[in-house]
Amino acid sequence: MSSRTGTSGQGSNYEYVIARVRARSAALFDDDDYRKLVRMGTGEIARFMEETEYETEMNALGSRYDGVDLVEYALNRNLAKHFDDLLRWSEGALYDYIARYLRKFDVWNVKTVIRGLYSDAERTEVEDDLIRAGEFTDRRVEDLLNAGSIEEVVEQLDDTIFGDTLAEAFDVYEESGVLVPLENALDRAFYETLLSGLPDNPEVDSPTGLYVEFLETEVDFRNLRNALRLAHSGADIDPSEYFIEGGQLFDAQEVAQLSTNLDQLVSAVRESKYGEDLNQALSALEEADNLIDFERALDAALLEYADRLSNRYPLSVCPVLSYVLAKEREVDNIRAIARGREAGLGPDEVEQELVIL
């Protein structure tokens, strides 16, 4: 991540950054591109990407890697480049908003390292999945990769925003032997820090108000995802322990009650301000009872919601955050296609793994 810092008292350069973001958004893959890719072998996928805006990364890495490895390294390097560009372009409060939000990749990287240690994965496999677009320095990331245990990872993060909640969750992890408490602690620390220090009731159409609305929506969707996972798991877990403060859809008590009854949870969401946006996803959940499909529908709904906000408020942080989500979706989809095709999955099977709007 860029080392430059912004100060909220300085003027933000929204018009310039959003013009650059609109140009980048126009280059994103569309659903037709994904439908072409799912019918290609890994070599064809690599050649296809060489003809796109991934050309620089594919050429730079092509002498060292091939197949899925080449695709994955190119995806991660390209993602980090684009998000570093966002910070390089931005000034004032806009810089601060983006820098806060991109810490989500620190969360991704810590989860990836922890999962690797939990499953005894090879270091190279773990490193392949890292996205160096957050606030952590390269040195910190290397130290995490070199950690010999999950406890060591927790200790290394003691001086970060994740320190306290992760230390508490580690005790629960040791008792339960499952990663959910650690992963949820990372999410909670990220989102609650993201919203801290922002006004409680900013003007709705102000830059800060729009930023808060976007973040509150993402917290709501995260709490909904967690509640559904608990409802499906049947595990004897207190849902309020996995509640993330800052959203508008539920409070901790409502989550605890609704996560024990899937029908009531679905009804509550239908009656909320997200009911229309999630109508199709909720119907799919009721009919198929398939949590994975619902989570993909939830991702698609968040993308569409972000798009609507960015179109309604074109000179705000919303188009930037919408682009971040869309770029993430592109990288996740291409990665899923490359991995699926290498594993021998057919086009229809791979397409089911994608988030398509």
UniProtKB/TrEMBL annotation:
Compartments where found: Cell membrane
Q: Which residues form a coiled coil?
A: none
Q: GO CC terms for this protein?
A: plasma membrane; proton-transporting V-type ATPase, V0 domain
Q: Would the keyword Membrane turn up in this protein's UniProt record?
A: yes
GO-annotated biological processes? proton motive force-driven plasma membrane ATP synthesis
* Major site of localization recorded for this protein: membrane
User: What membrane topology does this protein have?
Assistant: Peripheral membrane protein
Role according to the record:
Component of the A-type ATP synthase that produces ATP from ADP in the presence of a proton gradient across the membrane.
Q: Which family does it belong to?
A: Belongs to the V-ATPase V0D/AC39 subunit family.
Identification of the protein by name: A-type ATP synthase subunit C
| Organism the protein comes from | Haloarcula rubripromontorii
